[in-house]
Amino acid sequence: MKHLSVSLVCLIVLSALVFPHAAEARVPQHGMTVQTHQHDGSSQGRYSKEREEMIERTQPSGKIMDAMGIKPGMVVAEIGAGGGRFAVRLAERVGDAGKVYANDIDPDALEFMKKRCREEKIQNMIVVEGGETDPRLPLAALDVVALVHTLHMVKKPVPLLKNIIATLKPGGVLAVIDADPEKFARMNRDAEGLPSNEQVMRLLNDAGFELVSEHTFLPLHFFWILRPREEADQAANPRE
Length: 240
Prior knowledge:
- This protein is of the alpha/beta class.
- It has one domain (2-236): 3-Layer(aba) Sandwich (Rossmann fold), CATH 3.40.50.
- It has ten helices and seven strands.
- It has a seven-stranded mixed beta sheet, sandwiched between helices.
- The longest helix is centred in the first third of the chain and has 17 residues, at 2-18.
- It is globular and about 40 Å long.
- Mean pLDDT is 84; it is low at 1-41.
């Protein structure tokens, strides 16, 4: 019995390391809210440094920001920022000359990020309470808008995505990272309720976005860079 208990503990620890998002909320693709974690009654547990470190193993922020082209001085936003794991790293990358808008609709997440900015003395990150379809971000101001493990939890994705277009500068892009059900299945992870990549791409196309590039280095997620289709059309057919 003692050996069985030890083995069970080891299995639980290994599962936490390999599948750091196991406790994240999962809802059907058309029943989503931009709230990336289940409540456990404690923001400390939901947004702990230990949890962030586990997520970083499958979503390495540095490599992701490199692929997004994040540079000092940029103005960027994350929608569904949760406890700020990625947004804080964005703020560090863009530096004092840049700015990060950290958006969420979860009151606990918003309060946690505000507290985090105060405690960590982050001066270039603005916490924004978003709406269901309105991100409430500045218009024509953003170089990059990122949705990281968020889009599949949005109730009305197309209206939200359409409103993101107005926030982008000319040349600005949308970066979408979300759960890839095929990768989940290969890792023996529950993919029930997740939309297929094709379904997600149709939503993005319906909202007016077109794929620019795809990155495949994430073990559990797809990673796409997109731009508004009108801008893509203009690049293909420049005016004389």
